Amino acid sequence: MNNTLPPCPQCESAYTYEDGNLLVCPECGHEWTPGAEPEDTDEFIVKDANGNILQDGDSVTLIKDLKVKGSSTVAKVGTKVKINRLVDGDHNIDCKIEGIGAMMLKSEFVKKA
């Protein structure tokens, strides 16, 4: 038995399974036809440091101290942050940190809370 199903195109989970003529991801619920081109290629996906998919409104926690550009303030490790929106770019998380204000963060420095 050859059990080499492709990973989920949405979240890259390796736990995909067959359901009739579809492949299904048990982690994010995405369903697709094997060999079919992805239908929404313009959608961008933002993942945290652990590979979890982030969405607008999620809460995340900083995994390292981050210096605030143009100030002597530091956002400390463990600080909980609520994502206002996700944007396409290098700093892809638009958020507000209490005591600091509006900031743009890189998703590689946060983990989903």
Structure in words:
The structure is a single chain. The chain is mostly beta strands. It contains no helices and 12 strands. The chain has strands at residues 17-19, 22-24, 31-32, 46-47, 53-54, 59-62, 66-67, 74-75, 80-86, 93-97, 101-105, 110-112. The strands form 4 sheets. Strands 11-10-9-6-12 form a 5-stranded antiparallel beta sheet, with no helix packed on it. The chain starts with 16 loop residues before the first strand and ends with a strand. The mean pLDDT is 86.
Summarize the structure.
This protein has 113 residues and is mainly beta.
Average pLDDT score: 86
Which word captures the global form? elongated
What is the string of helix and strand elements?
EEEEEEEEEEEE
* Count of alpha and pi helical runs: 0
Radius of gyration equals: 18 Å
Percent range of helical residues: under 10%
